[in-house]
């Protein structure tokens, strides 16, 4: 009888040992879980590029599944200041040479990656339902015009070009009391769309993106400095290769096609 109980106890112990081994073995041999490398690129871009870049984002991320594009849109001057102050950014897309030059002088961009990727023109706009009846910048002194929306010249390239244009026409000082300043060109567009300004000065690409405004006139190129958009990789970027790949795509035929679709040259 004792032998019988001893045999049962022995079998029971062996079963416990086997169960313990079965439970712990997978834990010891289970490989560590690893995710494929993912890159999130922070793109600091001029506000006028908003629509074009949002479309490019969808196309780019589809073709580059390991990369996510995040945009920080605003006036080029403000974006340059943010980068100077250490704000995280991988790529800077400026609407003016001046703001990019400032970062290059401080060695805050990778100089060898800098390139001009598109151009634009300056236009005078009014709301679609506006009764303003002028067809040139020279007519901005019309008594029917009470408010003129422009970008802040110190931080918004479109505002800087607007000031250069009106300075050339010797009208800036006489119209200054009527100016309504926007923090970026898209805010200027909104002022006109909402009727808070009778007219506004924006890029042709902004006017093309809105169904609520009409173009009254186009500024002559000689009235202002060339509207050229330079792009570059930010020196402090931890994703240099991915940032260079994005710039290469932006300047490729696919990137150019999207820019042209949204009124860029």
From TrEMBL:
GO terms for biological process: molybdate ion transport. It comes from the Bacteria. Pfam families: SBP_bac_11. It comes from Brevibacillus brevis (strain 47 / JCM 6285 / NBRC 100599). Belongs to the bacterial solute-binding protein ModA family. Molybdate binds at residues 48, 76, 158, 185, 203. The lineage of its organism: Bacteria, Bacillati, Bacillota, Bacilli, Bacillales. This is Probable molybdenum ABC transporter substrate binding protein. One of its GO terms (molecular function) is metal ion binding. Residues 1-24 form the signal peptide. Keywords: Metal-binding, Molybdenum, Signal.
């Amino acid at each position: 009888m004792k032998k019988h109980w001893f045999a049962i106890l022995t079998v029971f112990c062996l079963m416990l040992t086997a169960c313990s081994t079965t439970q712990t073995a997978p834990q010891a041999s289970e490989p560590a879980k690893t995710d494929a490398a993912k890159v999130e690129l922070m793109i600091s871009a001029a506000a006028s590029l908003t629509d074009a870049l949002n479309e490019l984002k969808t196309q780019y991320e589809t073709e580059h599944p390991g990369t996510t594009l995040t945009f920080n849109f605003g006036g080029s001057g403000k974006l340059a200041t943010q980068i100077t102050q250490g704000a995280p950014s991988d790529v800077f897309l400026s609407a003016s040479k001046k703001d990019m030059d400032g970062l290059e002088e401080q060695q805050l961009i990778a100089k060898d990656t800098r390139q001009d990727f598109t151009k634009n023109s300056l236009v005078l706009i009014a709301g679609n339902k506006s009764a303003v009846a002028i067809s040139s910048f020279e007519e901005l002194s019309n008594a029917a015009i009470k408010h003129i929306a422009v970008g802040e010249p110190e931080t918004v390239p479109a505002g800087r070009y607007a000031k250069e244009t009106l300075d050339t026409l010797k009208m800036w000082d006489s119209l200054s009391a009527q100016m309504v300043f926007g923090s970026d060109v898209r805010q200027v567009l909104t002022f006109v769309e909402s009727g808070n300004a009778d007219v506004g000065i924006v890029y042709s690409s902004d006017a093309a993106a809105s169904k609520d405004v009409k173009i009254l006139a186009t500024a002559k190129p000689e009235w202002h400095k060339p509207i050229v958009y330079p792009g570059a990789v930010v020196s402090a970027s931890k994703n240099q290769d991915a940032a260079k790949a994005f710039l290469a795509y932006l300047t490729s035929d696919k990137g150019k096609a999207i820019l042209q679709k949204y009124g860029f040259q």
